[in-house]
Amino acid sequence: MDFTTFLWTTLGAFLTLATFSFLYKDNPFYKLAEHLVVGVSAGYFVIIVWHGTMVPNLFQKLADGDWYLLWLNSTQPWYIVPGILGILMWTRFSKKYGWISRWPMALYIGIAAGVAVPLEMSNKVNKQLVATMVDIDWSNFMGAGFFDPFSGMASLLIFIGAVSALIYFFFSKAHTGVFGGVAKLGIWTLMIGFGASFGFTVMARISLFINRLQYLDKNWREAAFDASNPNYSFGFPLVFWLVMALILVYIIWELMAHLKHKNQTSAPQ
Amino acid sequence: MSIFDRLMRLDRRWVFLFLTAVCIAGYYVDYSIPIRVTNETRSIYTFIDSLPPGDIVFVAIDYDPSNQAELHPMTYAIMEHAFRKNLKVIFTALSQNGPGMADQAIRDITDSVSLDRTYNGVEFKGREIRNGIDYTFLGYKPYYAIIILSMGQNFRISFPTDYYGTPLDSIPMMRGVLNYDNVACLIDLSGGNITDAWISYGQGRYNFPLALGLTGVMTAQYYPYLNSGQVFGIMGGMLGAAQYERMADNPGLAIDGMRVQLPAHIVIVLFIIIGNIGYFVTRRREQLEGR
Amino acid sequence: MRRQLPFVLVFLSGFFMIFQYFVPHQKSEFVYEFLLDWLTIIGGFAMALGIWSLIRVSYDRIKRQRENWGYSVITLTGLFLMMFFGITNWEDGSFGVYIYTAEGLSNSMFVHFFDFILIPIQATMFSLLAFFIASAAYRAFRARSVIASLLLLAALIVMMRFNPIFGAWIETVANWLMNVPNLAAQRAIVIGLGLGMVATALKIILGIERGYMGQG
User: Fold this and answer.
1) By the number of CB atoms within 10 A of the CB, which of A59, A245, B78, C182 ranks highest?
2) C39 and C93 in one domain?
3) Contacts of C182 (CB under 8 A, 6+ apart)
């Protein structure tokens, strides 16, 4: 790793720590990081859409035409139509002409709704129903034990669980009697599902933190003290300790402010 | 005030500090935990492992930096595996900051595949991974559902050029590669709704083998598609990534991270238990006082 | 024109898409491919709306010197710097502006801004959730009733599945939990969701649901 890359890595580490400082309280370092990322991310997106969509999908298609003839002389002049429709989207910001933006919007919404009808029906409803109503494998009913997810009993339990949970969602009939009993089984099934989701969510959230720890340690700290690096110089640890000192100063400053505040509030009126 | 009342009124920053301390301690203590491989992850590994050299794997990198912790290790493990097996890879990135994630992964894996390595006892010579020959990175386009549909007709409809601006027709690897029919399988690594579109609009309409790499938050929701055969494998969160790394014999950030998960999870479970004990003690006392 | 034409357009395009799915004739495929191609381009223009809003809000804040307006300067600086890097390149020693070709994407400043500014901040912001879920675990997850206990129990099993203290059995139970009761519950949700989406889509195509068009 060369020194420049290390400086960039240090910037990443500093911004990571600045963002973490929010856990203590909102502060200028956090605000800086927050506003910076909004701008950088928006700028990044502009470039990605420009080089990725506008140029190859529109401008290059019209490139052999002339602008003063409105590209009508290009080999694919029909690409002017989506261009115009796209520009019409921008009338949204005008109070007077805002209604025009509904035309391209309508085209998009119509197409999105049109593709959704058969495909969502087939993939979210039909195929799921078919997979629920399978032949129970009675010859392998117990499988490798109660907790075998591929036994005949498991398919039976999936069927019972899914149907009862669907019945729980059915609100047109009061949940009483046998219907109520099945609905109760349904809510139990749903709760196990939500519990499983929650268990996974905990792992997901902790992962995010571990990832930042790994960055600070593996990418930054290790690089700062990696003497096997051919470009290594005293600048690496110096920069590392400078950032650490900055953090320490900030912590002491916050601590003093906290103590001062505490003394003031506890002093007799 | 009882100890539980005090605990319940504790400033949450102490909770934060405690979790941080436990994670840092877990990170620096040297130990490992067994990673047991589940069927849903194994099927992805075996599928890729059984492909003949030259086959094309489509990897959809549909996540932003916010989900990189769980999905980046999957991308790295799959790419390393695919390139070492001499497979070709097509990438897309249909989430807003996805192209940057893909770009980073491609740079890192190109470096790593250039080295000699041994995986599962098999020695692999380092080789150069070349853009346009070993992989094609298509990039980002808005309206992912529409893009997924259009790629089923022809990749060139939405992607006349790749991410770097090279026309698809002049990329050697893409010669004769028209649409999903020409790829062996598609692996979607996603942290959001794009997965639904891949299932309904991609696999549902064009019928290709689809596997999912998901964030932990989403994992449980996609099991129905596994059982119905709409997807052939699921990797769930960091654990799924660690399982893939274990099978590929390529330990990376996920296996390293799973160690820290253990103490962190124990802390969370303890928090839940303490919270509940406090709740029952308080409720019991209120009941007694009420009587 | 203002209200009727959009609804006609929604109906026609929506109906065509359904028709095309069931009748994939060569001619309908031709139109289908065209529409998909066009929408990508319209999408490109639509993305500009959000960026323009951001610029307007930030500019407004700076102009009126609202509280913390200095941070809006940082936002705009980040935005314009990134746009500048994205259309320039000086890798080979000579500076060049590349608007219609993608050299900017490999500009090292463009890549570094993504790798060392965007990734760390965005990833860290999300990672704050780890602490909030810990705090919630401590305060909110109470076994108040049978169903809440069931949720907690399932969560505890899933959370402890890779804990070597419990041995392999917890893995087996957790695996069963994911593949049987969880699957059944999620399947009911997926079916419900699918039916809801189809119903909404049909209502939009038939013009029964019009809320998305706004007032006026």
Assistant:
1) C182
2) no
3) A192, A193, A196, A197, B220, B223, C154
C18 → chain A, closest CA residue: A114
CA separation for the pair B272, A48 (Å, rounded): 44
Mean pLDDT of B171-199: 95
Which range of residues forms the domain containing residue C14?
A: 1-77
Query: Are residues C108 and C50 part of one domain?
Result: no
Taking CA–CA distances from B103, the nearest residue in chain C reads: C111
Q: Which residues of C touch B67 (CB under 8 A)?
A: 126
Residues C65 and C6 in one domain: yes
Mutate which of B143, B156, B238, B273 to disrupt the C interface (most C C-beta within 10 Å)?
Answer: B143
Query: Å from B112 to nearest chain C CA?
Result: 18
Distance (Å, whole) CA B83 – CA B228: 30
Say whether pLDDT at A269 is over 60. no
**pLDDT tens, position by position, A127-171:** 999 999 988 888 888 888 889 888 899 999 999 999 999 999 988
| pTM for the structure as a whole | 0.94
Contacts C140 to B, Cβ<8 Å: 275
Which residue, of C31, C53, C77, is where some domain finishes?
A: C77
Residue C201 Cα distances to A266, C192, C194, angstroms = 62, 14, 11
Q: What is the complex's ipTM, to 2 decimals?
A: 0.93
The H or E element containing residue B85 is none
* Strand runs labelled E in chain C: 88-89, 96-97
Q: What is the mean pLDDT of residues B259-265?
A: 94
Task: Choose one of C29, C59, C77: the last residue of a domain.
Answer: C77
Q: Is residue C152 part of a domain?
A: no
pLDDT score at B291: 62
Residue in chain C lying closest to A108 (CA): C39
Structural domain includes residue C214 = no
pLDDT per position as a tens digit, C167-209: 888 999 999 999 999 999 999 999 999 999 999 999 999 999 8
What is the average pLDDT score of chain C?
Answer: 91
Angle at C118 between CA C113 and CA C122, to 5 degrees: 170
Question: Which has the closest alpha carbon to C115: B102, A78, B29?
Answer: B102
**pLDDT greater than 70 at residue A267:** no
Query: Does residue B51 belong to the interface with chain A, where contact is any CB pair within 8 Å?
Result: no
C157 occurs within a structural domain: no
Question: Which sequence spans correspond to the domains of chain A?
Answer: 134-208
* pLDDT score recorded for residue A94: 86
Residue C144 reports pLDDT greater than 60:
yes
Co-location of C14 and C73 in the same domain: yes
The tokens describing C55, both together, are: 């610029």
Mean pLDDT of chain A: 92
Instruction: Count structural domains, chain C.
Output: 2
Please report whether residue C63 resides in a domain.
Answer: yes
Transcribe chain A into DSSP letters.
--HHHHHHHHHHHHHHHHHHGGGT---HHHHHHHHHHHHHHHHHHHHHHIIIIIIIIIIHHHTTS-GGGTTTTSS-GGGHHHHHHHHHHGGGG-TTTGGGGHHHHHHHHHHHHHHHHHHHIIIIIIHHHHHHSPPP-GGGSSTTSTT-TTSHHHHHHHHHHHHHHHHHH--SS-S-HHHHHHHHHHHHHHHHHHHHHHHHHHHHHHHHHHHHHHIIIIIIIHHHT-TT-TT--THHHHHHHHHHHHHHHHHHHHHHHHHHHHHHHHS--
For C79-84, what is the mean pLDDT? 96
B42 touches chain A (CB under 8 A): no
Residues C28 and C57 in one domain: yes
